[in-house]
Amino acid sequence: xxxxxxxxxxxxxxxxxxxxxxxxxxxxxxxxxxxxxxxxxxxxxxxxxxxxxxxxxxxxxxxxxxxxxxxxxxxxxxxxxxxxxxxxxxxxxxxxxxxxxxxxxxxxxxxxxxxxxxxxxxxxxxxxxxxxxxxxxxxxxxxxxxxxxxxxxxxxxxxxxxxxxxxxxxxxxxxxxxxxxxxxxxxxxxxxxxxxxxxxxxxxxxxxxxxxxxxxxxxxxxxxxxxxxxxxxxxxxxxxxxxxxxxxxxxxxxxxxxxxxxxxxxxxxxxxxxxxxxxxxxxxxxxxxxxxxxxxxxxxxxxxxxxxxxxxxxxxxxxxxxxxxxxxxxxxxxxxxxxxxxxxxxxxxxxxxxxxxxxxxxxxxxxxxxxxxxxxxxxxxxxxxxxxxxxxxxxxxxxxxxxxxxxxxxxxxxxxxxxxxxxxxxxxxxxxxxxxxxxxxxxxxxxxxxxxxxxxxxxxxxxxxxxxxxxxxxxxxxxxxxx
Length: 483
Ligand SMILES: Nc1nc2[nH]cnc2c(=O)[nH]1
Ligand SMILES: [Zn+2]
Known about the structure:
This protein is an alpha/beta fold. It has helices at 45-51, 93-106, 111-127, 141-154, 178-193, 226-238, 252-261, 268-274, 292-301, 309-314, 322-328, 346-363, 385-399, 443-460; strands at residues 2-13, 16-27, 33-37, 59-61, 66-70, 72-78, 130-136, 157-161, 163-164, 212-218, 243-248, 282-286, 304-307, 331-334, 417-421, 466-471, 474-477.
């Protein structure tokens, strides 16, 4: 049993989080949260431990300026595009794929290059605080096996997909037939599902899924023939728990081309629906330019949207109406979408999600006033801090179908967490902010200081502030991992 004692911030809904400067969180041997008690002031600590029968347990006491939050969930990124990040911003999507992205991805036919690259990529992503990640690989079976092996050995929670792409791609970076694409899809699923299960099971065993799982990855409708999409739909139907990830309505030229390639489909979302690929565990990246009918279809199918604001700015795609989706009750998480996005950290996605919402608010002519709590509407309004935190954690968990396991702290859920450090010695000055002795603050005042630390961390924090990264109770990254 591992017990943390200190400040904890926990998303509770799209509009709220709970915070306590003095929480006790107990983690069992399987890495699940056993119990939580909030607001245990120091003079009550021993008594509370005694009530829990843990008087002799070792307690990991957080310092002032350290706090726990649930780990970040990146619902959409491309591991093989990380070497390209920060380049190519002069193009829009279709040219960017042709001139920047496909040439880099084709290099992953070289398994040695893939291994060297993916080790660096996955390490950086974990150390940036991403405890769950939805990875696109390339179309290569062997390189994608290597990616999954590395993620598994580093202890991250992830979905790893081999791209399906058998048309509208360069001749040296394309799958030669729908059959070949499906054969490699079956092979990557077998490879990933044969990873050994965790050795220790807890009482929530029936909820435990393997940390690393396969995910169907039709790159986007343009790059898949009807035949291939149809075969993927058949495969999906026989594996209801298998997640599906793809891109949707990112760019106007892309949408126009998609409509031309699928004249019988009622819409872009309708293409995926036609082939049985739009369901409650489908992750749709971007969704910048959806029609009202598509939003309703996505809501009806209970599919989730990965909001990738950095990429949407960088590739000149547009500003997604995330507030409208939230008002409709569509599940939304955040995605970095490297290298359409130029930053691997979910913190950067949070920052740009905030800016994107403010742009929509300004364009709609809305004033910057706090939202009345009785009428929670998000459309074309700035996203409050609790909402941004929720999208990066619990919202991402919903999009991935992992809401019973991760995204917030609760007994029975996995301890996937970040220990954030805003103390001056973290080296990112300006986050700490208060100079008074903490002893003179009331509980309420300390909660307000925590609010400030969280906001500063979300907007100005970086790897220097990510002290420890835990997945399923295990230390897997962060600064303390490398000491
Ligand atoms: N942003 C982005 N959109 C895509 N659509 C199809 N492939 C891609 C990709 O690699 N990145
Ligand atoms: Zn993408």
